[in-house]
Amino acid sequence: MARAVLFVCHANTARSVMAQLLLDRMLAARGAGDRVRVRSAGVAPWARDGMIASLDARLALKEDGLLVAEDAVVSTALRAHPDLIAAADLIVTMTVEQKRVVSELAEAGAPVIVTLRELAGEAGDIGDPAGQGEDTFRACRDEIKRCLDKSIERVLGEVP
After folding, report:
1. Does residue 72 lie in a domain region?
2. What confidence category does residue 110 fall into, taking pLDDT thresholds of 50, 70 and 90?
3. Rounded to an integer, what distance in angstroms lies between the CA atom of residue 95 and that of residue 114?
4. Does any domain span residue 26?
5. In this structure, what are the phi and psi dihedrals at residue 26, rounded to the nearest 5 degrees?
6. Backbone dihedral angles phi then psi of residue 37, each to the nearest 5 degrees
7. d(Cα 16, Cα 11) in Å, to the nearest integer?
8. Per the domain annotation, does 84 fall within a domain?
9. I want to staple 119 with a disulfide (CB 3.0 to 4.6 A). Which of 36, 107, 145, 151 is the partner?
10. How far apart are the two ends of the chain, measured CA to CA in Å?
11. What is the pTM for the complete model shown?
12. Which residues lie below 8 Å from residue 124, measured CB to CB, with a gap of 6+?
């Protein structure tokens, strides 16, 4: 059975989408795409089902070789879909605050919940690039990639 990883950010239109798609590509490159099922969701009160991924996030991914159609990935509001928490083996948030919110939404026996930086053995948040321009989205994409590169074995369950 595939391991389930859930990425969480505020609205599920930029950081968590980039993390989901970048991890999917990394797993495919390792021939491990069937070992991990990757999803993403937004935890903010304004997160809604069906919002399209940010244009800046899609452009940053395109520059990195990932072509994402406007409607290829749509947002999921985690508060409306608590079953995603129960179905996950690992939940990765972009900030400590999001980790706290997801922990409050989780029931007893919740999966492991960590920030992306914690997953990579570091501290700190992956800041929200919304409204800050293409360079900030590129930097965010690169930071997500760096953290995922450092933690791919942990994502695969090969390292605790």
Report:
1. yes
2. confident
3. 9
4. yes
5. -60, -40
6. -100, 120
7. 9
8. yes
9. 151
10. 18
11. 0.94
12. 115, 117
